[in-house]
């Protein structure tokens, strides 16, 4: 197995203790199937080209600059060296600013996870920080210049090492009020709440990421394979959308409480059907054939 390449190398510093660490990507999309854009007529790859929005003429790389729109059609132009000067200077140090409880940071602030491992020397100090945080059940809030921006990371013990998640800035996280503003103020209690608790308890389990497969990725891989082999895949029918259901009845059925009731209804319907059939036979007039035979026997 090829050793992973570090995305960043520097130091972690807490108090007056500092030691070298390496940061590695913990989640990546590089294993996904990737497509190229082709010219349908020639089969050749298509390349992107920047053109002037008014004249339509191609614009070479050296003539491309950043611009911030201040009003419709008017921009403030920023030269490359001006943008570079705005990048904060980096001393390659993750400075721990505070230790906080694990659950204190809302998940909506989580951005991307990275593994942190000791780099060369400093394993003893690394283990000291890891074990100390694990025993105290805390995470570390640290800051550093990462990928040209000053970033905040939440660092936690993870197996033999640490995992650092970059955090979204407060202005990047949207308020939940707009999403939930039309949520009615309802109070659920009684049988509904008890049934919901029962269903939740019967569905308790453990998170195993291996149980969740990427069906889209698998379907695309099968499609590519079929194309290579000259096969055609059957078109799949879209599943029917779920129908609205009575909430209380759906909860009862989910909890397995509706099955006996259905069985009773089925039995009652069957008995009612038999009784109707008996009543119909009893009230029906006798057939002519049976009546004629009786008369002949009587004579």
Automatic annotation (TrEMBL):
Location of region: Disordered: 231-299
SMART domains, sorted: Ku78 (SM00559)
Biological processes per GO annotation: DNA recombination; double-strand break repair via nonhomologous end joining
Domain named Ku: residues: 56-185
Pfam family, one: Ku
Keywords recorded for this protein, A-Z: DNA damage, DNA recombination, DNA repair, DNA-binding, Plasmid
Transmembrane segments: none
Domain of life, source organism: Bacteria
Molecular-function annotations in GO: double-stranded DNA binding
Gene3D superfamilies documented for this protein: 2.40.290.10
Protein family membership: Belongs to the prokaryotic Ku family.
Complex formation: Homodimer. Interacts with LigD.
Its job: With LigD forms a non-homologous end joining (NHEJ) DNA repair enzyme, which repairs dsDNA breaks with reduced fidelity. Binds linear dsDNA with 5'- and 3'- overhangs but not closed circular dsDNA nor ssDNA. Recruits and stimulates the ligase activity of LigD.
Protein name listed in UniProt: Non-homologous end joining protein Ku
Species: Rhizobium etli (strain ATCC 51251 / DSM 11541 / JCM 21823 / NBRC 15573 / CFN 42)
């Amino acid at each position: 197995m090829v050793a992973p390449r570090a995305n960043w190398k520097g130091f972690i510093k807490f108090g007056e203790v500092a030691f070298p660490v390496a940061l590695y990507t913990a989640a990546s999309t590089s294993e996904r199937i990737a497509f190229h854009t082709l010219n349908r007529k020639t089969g050749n790859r298509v390349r992107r080209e920047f053109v002037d929005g008014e004249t339509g003429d191609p614009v070479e790389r050296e003539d491309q600059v950043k611009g911030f729109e201040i009003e419709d059609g008017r921009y403030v132009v920023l030269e490359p060296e001006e943008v570079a000067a705005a990048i904060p200077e980096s001393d390659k140090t993750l400075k721990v600013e505070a230790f906080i409880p694990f659950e204190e940071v809302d998940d909506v602030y989580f951005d991307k996870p990275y593994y942190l491992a000791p780099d060369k020397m400093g394993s003893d100090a690394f283990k000291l920080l890891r074990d100390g945080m694990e025993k105290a059940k805390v995470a570390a809030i640290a800051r550093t210049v990462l990928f040209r921006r000053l970033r905040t990371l939440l660092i936690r013990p993870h197996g033999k090492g640490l995992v650092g998640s970059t955090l979204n800035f407060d202005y990047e996280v949207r308020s939940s009020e707009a999403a939930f503003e039309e949520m009615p103020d309802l109070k659920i209690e009684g049988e509904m709440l008890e049934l919901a608790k029962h269903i939740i308890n019967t569905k308790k389990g453990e998170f195993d990421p291996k149980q969740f497969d990427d069906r889209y990725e698998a379907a695309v891989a099968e499609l590519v394979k079929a194309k290579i082999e000259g096969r055609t895949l059957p078109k799949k029918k879209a599943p029917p959308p779920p129908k609205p259901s009575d909430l209380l009845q759906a909860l009862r059925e989910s909890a397995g409480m509706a099955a006996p009731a259905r069985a009773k209804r089925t039995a009652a319907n069957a008995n009612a059907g038999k009784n109707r059939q008996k009543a119909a036979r009893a009230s029906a007039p006798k057939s002519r054939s049976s009546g004629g035979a009786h008369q002949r026997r009587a004579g």
